[in-house]
Prior knowledge:
CATH class: Alpha Beta
Low-confidence stretches: 1-26
Strand content: 15-25%
CATH architecture: 3-Layer(aba) Sandwich
CATH superfamily: Formyl transferase, N-terminal domain
Radius of gyration: 17 Å
Structural class: alpha/beta
Amino acid sequence: MNNRSQSPASSRQLLIANCWPLAADSWLLTTMPNLGILLSGRGSNFLAIADAIASGEIPNARIAVVISNLADAPGLEAARNRGLNAIAIEAKGRKRAEHDQEIIATLQAHQVELVCLAGYMRLLSSGFIQAFPQRILNIHPSLLPAFPGLDAQTQAFEYGVQIAGCTVHFVDEQLDHGAIILQRAIPVLPTDDAPTLAARILEQEHLAYSEAIARVLSGEYQIIGRRYVQKS
Length: 232
């Protein structure tokens, strides 16, 4: 990808950037982009996204499909209760590339244009990321680049930070590494322990993810090097 790339404009003008090589025209001309949600658990961030779409906080978008690598993920049942397409594509005993390819095919079959990881506890293969370049978002419960990986809230608490928070970022081939779209920060209170801090960070995640999706779908930004730059 070039160091400087331009996002699709909100007016859906035909501005095809190098970071959107796959089906660029269809994305730019879509008036209601399709989101695909990947989750492994209860899907609280997915539910916050669904609520934000319903309320108009994320305008002109719809959730086309919710996919989990676990058949018993509570998030799937929550999706079905909302009348959404919910599909289990189990990973156990399968090679990562093979499993990812089935998910890619399912997302493409549902014409998904933006993939949102919402507590999806598997690393994506390079083939997956290449299938949706600069079209995969993730939320992480720390102020990246601090505390990547698992149990970020506990990492932050045990390190003794005074400020914690969450980060929404594009997904690339490195762990918790892609360009940062936005961050929300909270103070670590004297009364906090790791679970209470995690719960307060989660409240910020629910706000941050919806705001980040709306920003990306607006197209009013550029990625310059690693920097997400909002257009004035």
